[in-house]
Write a structure and sequence with these properties.
By secondary structure, the protein is α+β, with helices and mostly antiparallel strands. It has a single domain, classed as Cyclic phosphodiesterase (Cyclic Phosphodiesterase, Chain: A, Alpha-Beta Complex), CATH 3.90.1140. It contains 4 helices and 7 strands, in the order βαβαββαβαββ. Strands 1, 2, 3, 4, 5, 6 and 7 form a 7-stranded antiparallel sheet that branches.
Length: 176
C-alpha cells in the first residue's frame, strides 16, 4: 500500500491480510497504542486489524478472491507463531518500525496460496507499528524496545481489504 507524497494512493488495489487471534491482536495493538499515547502518529493505515500482508491484487479480482479465501479457510488451520524481534525497513522518504512473526512451514504454505499476487517487493512478513520520518522512528524504536517482550501468538484469520479509501470486504477464520 503505497501512499504518494500528498498521502493519497497511487491506485486502488485489494490486499490479503493475515490476522491474529484476539490475544495476539491485543498484545500487538497494545504496543502500537502505547506509541499513540506517547504522541506518535505515523502514516500507517489506522483502524484495521494487526496483520502481515500476504499479497496485493487488482480490484477486478474481488469475487475471485472472496471465493478463494472461503476455500483456503476450510483447508488451512490456524497456527502458532513466535514474535521475537523488532525491525526496521528503510524507505526513500520514511522508515517502517515493525514487530515480526517468525516464518514457519505453516506460514509458507499459506503464503503459497497467494503466489500469483502482483507485489513488487520480496515478501517479508511483519506487523507495522509505525511509519514515519527516520528521526521519529528512531525515537519510537526506543519506546517499543522498552515495552517489547518475545511472545507466542496465533495466525487465525484472513482479511480482504480494498485501499483508498479503506474498505473491509471480508474476514474468514482459519480452521481450528
Amino acid at each position: 500500500m503505497k501512499k504518494t507524497e500528498d498521502n493519497t494512493m497511487a491506485e486502488k488495489a485489494l490486499y490479503i491480510l493475515a490476522g491474529y487471534d484476539d490475544r495476539t491482536e491485543e498484545i500487538l495493538s497494545g504496543l502500537q497504542n502505547k506509541l499513540y499515547d506517547q504522541g506518535f502518529s505515523g502514516l500507517q493505515t489506522k483502524d484495521i486489524p494487526m496483520h502481515f500482508t500476504m499479497g496485493s491484487y487488482a480490484v477486478e479480482q474481488e469475487d475471485e478472491l472472496k471465493n478463494r479465501l472461503e476455500k483456503i479457510a476450510e483447508t488451512h488451520r490456524a497456527f502458532d507463531t513466535a514474535f521475537n524481534h523488532v525491525g526496521l525497513f528503510r524507505l526513500p522518504e520514511n522508515d517502517v518500525l515493525f514487530v515480526a512473526p517468525e516464518v514457519s512451514r505453516e506460514m509458507l504454505a499459506l503464503k503459497a496460496e497467494f503466489s500469483d499476487n502482483r507485489d513488487q517487493f520480496s515478501w517479508s512478513p511483519h506487523t507495522t507499528m509505525l511509519i514515519d520520518k527516520p528521526a521519529v522512528i528512531q525515537e519510537a524504536t526506543q519506546s517499543v524496545l522498552t515495552e517489547f517482550r518475545s511472545f507466542s501468538g496465533k495466525v487465525a484469520v484472513l482479511h480482504l481489504y480494498e485501499f483508498w479509501p479503506t474498505r473491509h470486504i471480508l474476514s474468514v477464520r482459519l480452521a481450528d
